[in-house]
């Protein structure tokens, strides 16, 4: 009998399409599935994941491709597949249930619920056979089907009670106290307790980068002069750049490079090899902050490496940015199986066969290559005899050890990397998730715009502007300011979430700072106004994740954690403070202050939950400082002045262009533009007054270096 696809074949999500030929009768999340459950009286089985998820692939192969398991699932349940990246609000709701009832979470997420979407049992990955102290997936299906058949009233009562509890957790209540310096100090203390002083990062393995924490540390160091906060951030970024989590075969203009999602060990050595756009966007910004704070070229070069990777390997023909590359790829040695990290691993024999002897000797010492493989642990036997590139010696150390000039070290390593890069290109590439997500693109726009200023690279600004034009033309209604979340294969779809608005506004504001094109500022203001109307709770002073008219999720959620992706509320607090400083509109500042205040109770309970919100609070309490730049856009002297301002990591500094044609938008700046004559100049303004015009980069650099921002 010819194999037939299920209903997912009509979807655009790469993750759903991966499951379109399973024998499971999958439905996408939506009314068709819910109606089917009500009509048949069967519970819903929700499986949520994403296309580059390793354990999602494992569970699919073990269970969802198995005809007997599929028949059991189809007979007793209505199976629903969800791409968590398309519907993060739905995933968040049910993940909160799983974490509350099991004490842990992760993907694939497995949740059983009533036809009216109330959960009663959940978990993450279930193996095909009982192992690791976990029941088999089939035994769970059989047990729950039996309970639904013979003890349904108890399950329904339990599900109703659980939903009531979830509803209580999601009900907004504005904080009763202000967020204070004490909250920032408590956050720093919590991070210090979890800091790995030898290898950087926070907490034990697995280790995640969490750039929001790094942003807090940089901001706190600027605000307080706390050297330890700065040192923790810099050490973490240095160790990550040296680790296996970093793809060391990035070649400028050709591709490669970037960072994997997280490390399975404390040494940043053995990564989970998937590469996510949101990680690389945020880490690029973190490395730029580190460069601003330290002047160390290592950080600038690492940011460049990330940008090269994204622009070469993650950019769509339209100019926007794809979502992710998979952890798994086909074994290059021809076994026909997909393996974790297969694209990135090397044997010593391969390296010596591809490189000249002098290059090979140097490369082996540089990257810790061993004949028996260098992975410190290998729980699934996938790294036997293989090496994960990890930087073990600096160029200076290599020059001393091998008694060669440091320039020779650089030349040999560059030659070796290019040769291995070209050899790697012949291997089967990891799978690509080529959907375009508005929020993740917004984060990348922000990083590229900042990079163009800090690194002095106009190609980064050009790439950001091209991507922004595509997003605004394709995923945004210019009249209403309404956003869509996802584009793929010619289709823009899915109601935008608060994160889409927040992150795109962030990117547009940074584009304005980098280009002084007021169209980006106008677009940001339009989106900010639309977001207040559709997402902001005027009584509680907080943004919901889902718009008021979006009924795709049973309960509207409030993001209250800066995790791998920043909370929309934290990003919004930053955005509205910045919009208020640029435009002078007090209502934007009020929105930001109420959002910050809302989470005082959250920060009381968990001081490190919202580090990026604490950055916003620091900006809100600092004295407002602006630099108003006068002069014609595109003038090299003006560009030099602007670049000088961004040598300094001053989060509370607002940059504005004195465009005399923008009187309605920026009246004060326009007035300066009208009266300014002559060469480009910078006006440093604070306390309601501006200093005399500064006309050269050296004077501006000195002024910013000595200026008291508090």
Automatic annotation (TrEMBL):
GO biological process: carbohydrate metabolic process
Lineage start: Bacteria, Pseudomonadati, Chlorobiota, Chlorobiia, Chlorobiales
Name by which UniProt lists this protein: Spermatogenesis-associated protein 20-like TRX domain-containing protein
Family annotation (InterPro entries): 6-hairpin_glycosidase_sf (IPR008928), 6hp_glycosidase-like_sf (IPR012341), Ssp411 (IPR024705), Ssp411-like_TRX (IPR004879), Thioredoxin-like_sf (IPR036249)
Residue ranges of every copy of the Spermatogenesis-associated protein 20-like TRX domain listed in the record: 6-166
Entries under SUPFAM superfamilies matching the protein: Six-hairpin glycosidases, Thioredoxin-like
